[in-house]
Each structure stands twice: as C-alpha cells, then as structure tokens.
Design goal:
- It is a single chain.
- This protein has 220 residues and is an alpha/beta fold.
- The strands form two sheets. A five-stranded parallel β-sheet has the order 2-1-6-7-8, sandwiched between helices. The chain has a three-stranded antiparallel β-sheet with strand order 3-4-5.
- A hairpin with a 2-residue loop joins strand 3 and strand 4.
- The longest helix has 19 residues.
- The chain is globular and about 50 Å long.
- It starts with 5 loop residues before the first helix and ends with a helix.
- This is Phosphoribosyltransferase family protein.
- One of its GO terms (molecular function) is glycosyltransferase activity.
- Keywords: Glycosyltransferase, Transferase.
Length: 220
C-alpha cells in the first residue's frame, strides 16, 4: 500500500480517527501537527473531524556527518531527548552533540515563530483536558514523536494519541509507553523509511505550512 501524497495519506488516517470518534474513544479532539511533513496530513484529519488544528515544532538531532540518522530530538525549550542505545552504539555522547543541539534549537525557534505567527508556544491553554491527536506523515525511529509526546503529556491531556499513516511496527509498539494509543494505518513488514510509501514525497516548504495553518485559522 502506497499513498499518492500526504493529502491522500491524511484521508486514510482521517478514516481511522473517525472510527475512534464513533466509538467514543476520542471526544472533542485537538489535532496537533508535527511540521513540516505532518501538517498537510493533519489538516485533512482536522477537517474531517471538525477539530482545531495546532502545530508543535520538533527537530531531529542527527549523527554528525549523517543528519538523516536521528539519535535524539528537541521540542520547545525542553532538554533534548536522546536514544541512549543509539548514542552508545555510535560512540557518541550528549556533550559531543551540544553544538548540533544548539543549531537545531535555533532552527526550531525560527520555525516556531514563522508557524505560530507570534502566538505563544503550544501549552496548557490548548492541551489540558483535551483529547489530543499528534499527527505526522510517518514513523521511522520514533525519536521525534517520543519527544513531542512527552512535551504534550506535561500539559495533562485527557487522552493522548499518536496518529500516522505509515510506520515501523517496532517503533509504533515502543511508543505505546508514551501515548494512550498509537494509530498507525499501515505497518509494512519490510519498512526502511517513510518516503518509500509515498509516490509523491517532496519536501514540504515553509510557505505551504504557513498557508495551510492560515487556512485553518491557526495562524494569522
């Protein structure tokens, strides 16, 4: 099963989430997108559920010289969440990655300012007591999702659900420790990366993210 693009993936994910609403497992939901790729997916889900759309900026911390290989993630001003096993296997330490963390935090702040249009960071006012759906375009190692779930859990949501169209089965299972539920529509037996399950997986640009958020009323 491959998706045409992120909007197609959002439609499949929305169908799964609507089923949760019908069973009463998800009431008065708030949809929270992980940019950039999660925003087009989450917008479709939010529209189908008639739910507000919010955005939570997270940044992957990669291996020096191999940024595509994640060993940790940042959300807001929280300390980085590292995969300690991956660090040990690669002979890395948090101290050695301090410069990478600061660069990623600077980019996180830039994106948060652009996407949230001057509004304060996502927090208690939006999350407390709500059923929260954290949405991304896929799940590989789960490092970024883990950091985001921990950030959201702090604000005491009534229910916290990670929802993705496709992902690695082991990563999805591991994240059940962080979320009340993990909804992953497609868990391929041979999973090597999110992009292989999309026909169109072009990088989402800032302009598209901002346009979608403005259209949803999230940004002004």
């Amino acid at each position: 099963m491959r998706y045409f693009d992120r909007r197609h993936a959002g439609e499949a994910l929305a169908t799964r989430c609507l089923a949760l609403v019908r069973t009463g497992a998800l009431t008065d939901p708030l949809v929270v997108a992980l940019p950039r790729g999660g925003v087009p997916v989450a917008a479709v889900v939010a529209r189908a559920l008639g739910a507000p759309l919010e955005v939570l900026v997270a940044r992957k911390i990669g291996v020096p010289g191999r940024p595509e290989v994640g060993v940790g993630a940042l959300v807001g001003e929280d300390p980085p969440v590292f995969d300690e096993g991956a660090l040990a296997a690669l002979g890395l330490t948090a101290e050695r990655l301090a410069g990478d963390v600061e660069r990623e935090r600077a980019e996180l702040r830039r994106r948060e300012e652009a996407y949230r249009a001057g509004r304060p960071p996502l927090g208690a006012a939006e999350v407390t007591g709500r059923a929260v759906l954290l949405v991304d375009d896929g799940l590989a190692t789960g490092g970024t999702a883990r950091a985001a779930l921990r950030y959201l859990r702090r604000w005491d949501p009534a229910r916290l659900v990670l929802a993705v169209p496709v992902g690695d089965a082991a990563a999805a299972a591991a994240l059940r420790e962080e979320a009340d539920d993990v909804e992953c529509v497609h868990q391929p037996r041979n999973f090597h990366g999110v992009g292989e399950w999309y026909l169109d997986f072009d990088q989402v640009q800032d302009a598209e993210v901002i346009s979608i958020l403005r259209g949803s009323g999230t940004a002004v």
